[in-house]
Amino acid sequence: MCGMGDEALMQQISALPVDMLGFIFYPRSPRFVVGKVDPDSIKRLPDSIRKTGVFVNETKQVVLDYARAYHLDTLQLHGSEKPEMCRSLKEEGFSVIKAFNLAKENNFAAYAPCCDYFLFDTPSEKHGGTGAKFDWSLLKNYTGSRPFLLSGGIGPDDAEELKAIVHPQMAGFDINSRFEVSPGKKDVEKIQNFIQVLIE
């Protein structure tokens, strides 16, 4: 569950069967988390939840400063970051997720050794949050060894279709804007019902 911006809802969602909560550190995003969520509330989340920060073309030092201040353990890079950036952050002890647009040529082989997951998202000049899907049939073109998360416009009514996707490296789904009341404020009931259909 990405784009968290409400502390009370964050605690509720952490009680659901989710693996990661995402916090956006991209200043141009309406879900920019700085000033909205107390870092200590992130620290208090269960150990089973991966506290994930989303960054777009930031310097290594900025990423590390936020990661340490907000008690993150996973870093998602959503810009044009190079493999060297991923490797450097991984060497600092963080898990690394790198976002890609499957509709264009990608050098997955260069990123695979320094990323824990890839994330396949809908391309946007705004770097995510479009609420729009890309063509999921493109997933069949990915033949790499690194597991991936599927993102981009996934909504409450997509669970059955997602269950029908078969790919050996698909590790999960990244949901955000279509489960919101307003940017950063999630509809817990919609999330709960979505997860229930997925695990049935």
Walk me through this protein's architecture.
- The structure is a single chain.
- By secondary structure, the chain is an alpha/beta fold.
- It has one domain (7-199): TIM Barrel, CATH 3.20.20.70.
- Helices cover 26% and strands 18% of the residues.
- It contains seven helices and nine strands.
- The chain has helices at residues 7-14, 39-43, 60-69, 83-91, 108-111, 159-163, 188-199; strands at 20-24, 50-55, 74-77, 95-100, 117-120, 148-150, 170-173, 180-182, 185-186.
- α4 (83-91) links the parallel β3 and β4 (95-100).
Which key phrases capture this entry?
7 helices, 200 residues, alpha/beta, 9 strands, globular, TIM Barrel
Summarize the entry for a quick read.
The chain has helices at residues 7-14, 39-43, 60-69, 83-91, 108-111, 159-163, 188-199; strands spanning 20-24, 50-55, 74-77, 95-100, 117-120, 148-150, 170-173, 180-182, 185-186. By secondary structure, it is an alpha/beta fold.
Which range best describes the helical content: under 10%, 10-25%, 25-40%, 40-55%, 55-70% or over 70%?
Answer: 25-40%
Name of the CATH architecture: Alpha-Beta Barrel
Beta percentage is 15-25%
User: Main beta sheet: strand number and arrangement?
Assistant: 7 strands, parallel
Class derived from helix and strand content:
alpha/beta
Average pLDDT confidence is 94
Tally of individual domains:
1
Within the CATH hierarchy, at the fold level, what is the topology?
Answer: TIM Barrel
